[in-house]
Design a protein that fits this description.
Blueprint (H helix, E strand, L loop, with lengths): L2 H15 L6 E4 L12 E7 L17 E7 L2 E7 L10 H4 L1 H9 L3 E10 L9 E8 L28 H14 L4 E7 L8 H9 L4 E3 L3 H9 L3 E11 L10 H24 L3
The structure holds hypoxanthine.
The site of hypoxanthine has 14 residues, from strand 5, strand 8 and strand 9.
Length: 273
């Protein structure tokens, strides 16, 4: 089956299960708040029920699409995301973004947990991502192009929509939420970077580094979906901190910041401008 037809089959399956088409896609990073709790008229669809949909091999990972209302928007939230380090191809891990497109989504909000490189950052900071550096050295657009999705050579001069970023800045001001801005580089992982790698990321202009977000951003831009991404700095990167990294620490700091991030995302979604 052609890629387009496979995506269409997934979208058609989801369409039949929901009352209203989603307009905003949401992909949340580990520990970063449960937006789903504040949504209304929810429909939960396990990934494994959707034909063609990827399924995470990691045990205990929630794998559901949750479609529901928040204010005037109908959201399609991914409960459980896919990473390159799990062994998915770039195309597989961004598959849900292609499905979002066919369901009518035109805005995507992505969050993640990451390491801080900019010396002005500290654990717990939230960073509005202004641009990315694709140091995963692959991307979901490699291979045949289907013009029904997008052009062969997409522009990437504004990967994070200035309109949505402006909306996010205004929302943060209204809530008195302090935030940083910066460039996010993707590291394949799953190991945390070496100190030498962090010096490289620093020199090439990254303010933060993590293991996600960039593939979804590339797919969304190709599909004409406006993207907004907010990173939570859960730790300073290798060589810029005392002690060693741990996933427990990442989750703890992400959870501590999750509430603030959730309030921010909610304000962005319910605000008129
Ligand atoms: N590096 C990469 N990914 C991460 C980090 C980090 O320091 N912290 C949380 N996710």
């Amino acid at each position: 089956m052609e890629f387009y037809d496979k995506v269409k089959a997934s979208a058609d399956f989801i369409s039949k299960r929901i009352k209203e088409s989603p307009t905003v896609g949401v992909i949340l990073g580990s520990g970063l708040g449960d937006l789903v709790d504040i949504m209304e008229e929810k429909e939960v669809i396990p990934y494994r029920e959707i034909p063609g949909f990827p399924v995470s091999k990691v045990q205990g990972h929630a794998g559901n699409l949750v479609i529901g209302r928040l204010g005037k928007e109908v959201l399609m939230v991914m409960q459980g995301r896919f990473h390159y380090y799990e062994g998915f191809s770039m195309k597989e891990l961004t598959y849900p973004v292609f499905v979002m497109k066919l369901l009518g989504v035109d805005k995507l909000i992505v969050t993640n947990a990451c390491g801080g490189i900019n010396r002005g950052f500290k654990p717990g900071d939230l960073m509005l991502i202004t641009d990315f550096i694709n140091t995963a050295w692959s991307n979901p657009l490699i291979g045949d192009n289907d013009e029904r999705f997008g052009v062969r050579f997409p522009d990437m001069s504004e990967p994070y929509s200035s309109e949505l970023r402006e909306r996010a800045v205004k929302a943060a001001k209204r809530l008195s939420i302090d935030f940083k801005e910066g460039v996010y580089a993707i590291h394949q992982g799953p190991y945390y970077e070496t100190a030498a790698e962090i010096r490289m990321y620093d020199r090439i202009g990254a303010d933060a580094v993590g293991m996600s977000t960039v593939p979804e951003t590339i797919a969304a831009n190709y599909l004409g979906i406006k993207t907004l991404a907010i990173a939570c700095i859960t730790n300073m990167a290798t060589g810029l901190r005392e002690g060693k990294h741990s996933h427990e620490e990442v989750l703890r700091i992400a959870e501590e910041s999750g509430e603030r991030l959730l309030k921010w995302v909610k304000e962005i979604l319910v605000s008129e401008n």
